[in-house]
Design brief:
344 residues; alpha+beta; Nucleoside Triphosphate Pyrophosphohydrolase; 2 domains; 8-stranded mixed sheet; globular; NUDIX_hydrolase-like_dom_sf; metal ion binding; metal-binding; NUDT19; magnesium
Length: 344
């Protein structure tokens, strides 16, 4: 599928969970980090999203391999970041000897630093650590704008301060591909990382309007009240993560599940009298042969009932409704939970 998706920009996003000492009102002992895109953003303005962005050629700089080698990482240890099955096409190729499973993790770490000032890294090798490490430093934070303006500076930051990006703490989570009917096309890999404490954040001044820490259910409640907007991938993943209200269980699940890979989600958009829907892989109505050249949204009177449902109703610009029935996710993933408004 890599060749077929040549018009899709590759990107990486990071779901960050931070442990709380006290449980929230909705009984979670952790919170998830999101950023609000500014109203001037060219993609998803005013939406709350996980930090992330487009891959840069600097993420594939061969110097990264030297940094990891000097830190004591072996080729086999880094290769362990590649899933053993259900490998999405975005991870299969690499440039200049830097494999995609490594460069896209560097991308996610770089973008997270650019957007919210959280530097996920350590001074020493961290192989086998299930929890992510972060470095808080006012001197390092002064580089946030520098890296934002020029991604090539991220490797210089790491060299200057002897920081090793904590790539092993980023666990593969999901892969979302923008439907061809939309104007901006992305092939986005999602990773998840968990902290034992809440890192200090600093919003990037131009693209980020707000930084929010909430538990998964709180985000969904705010979305249902139309107080925040969540794009479909964020809405879906929060509906899946909310099943685990204990951060230790989330860490265990993400660590055990990551080697199993993930299924690429390329939503099939259809417009009906009830509104717009996205059918996801596994739904009986999902096309067997997806036409990536079709930039139009197919129109039908009603979306048919089916034995297996895996679909999202885009009820409004603020609100999505998820429907699942007899759906069994691949790669050891959880079935998302969201209250259905009807048996549509």
């Amino acid at each position: 599928m890599t060749t077929a998706l040549k018009n899709w920009r590759e990107s990486a996003s990071l779901i960050i969970a931070a442990k709380n000492k006290l449980k929230s009102a909705t009984n979670f002992n952790y919170k998830i980090l999101t950023i609000k895109r500014s109203s001037k953003s060219g993609f998803m303005p005013n939406n709350y999203v996980f930090p992330g962005g487009n891959a840069s050629s600097s993420d594939s700089d061969p110097k990264w391999l030297e940094i990891f080698q000097k830190a004591g990482y072996t080729k086999n240890e880094l290769s362990g970041l590649m899933p053993k099955e259900n490998v999405p096409s975005i991870l299969r190729d690499g440039t200049d000897g830097v494999p995609k499973f490594l460069s896209l993790r560097i991308c996610a770490i770089r973008e997270t630093f650019e957007e919210c000032g959280v530097l996920i890294g350590s001074r020493n090798k961290t192989t086998g650590n299930q929890w992510a490490q972060h470095i808080d430093s006012e001197e390092i934070l002064e580089w946030q704008k520098v890296v934002h303006d020029d991604p090539n500076e991220f490797i210089n930051l790491c060299l200057k301060f002897k920081v090793i990006p904590d790539v092993c703490a980023l666990k593969l989570w999901s892969n979302w591909i923008t439907p061809p009917c939309l104007s901006s096309l992305f092939n986005a890999i999602f990773f998840i990382a968990s902290f034992k404490d809440t890192p200090t954040t600093q919003a990037e001044e131009i693209e980020v309007a707000d930084i929010k820490w909430c538990d998964p259910q709180a985000y969904l409640d705010l979305n249902q009240k139309k107080e925040i907007m969540l794009p479909p991938p964020q809405f879906y993943e929060l509906s899946r993560i909310k099943i685990l209200n204990d951060v230790d269980e989330l860490v265990r699940h993400s660590n055990e599940r990551a080697p199993l890979g993930c299924e690429a989600f390329l939503p099939y958009r259809v417009k009906t009298k009830e509104g717009s829907f996205s059918c996801l892989p596994g739904d009986d109505f999902y096309p067997k042969n997806y036409d990536l050249e079709n930039k139009n949204i197919d129109e039908i009177d009603h979306i048919p009932d089916s034995n297996v449902k895996h679909r999202v109703w885009h009820k409004s610009s603020h609100l999505n409704i998820l429907y699942t029935k007899n759906y069994k996710p691949k790669a050891g993933h959880l079935v998302p939970m969201y209250p259905n408004e009807s048996k549509l």
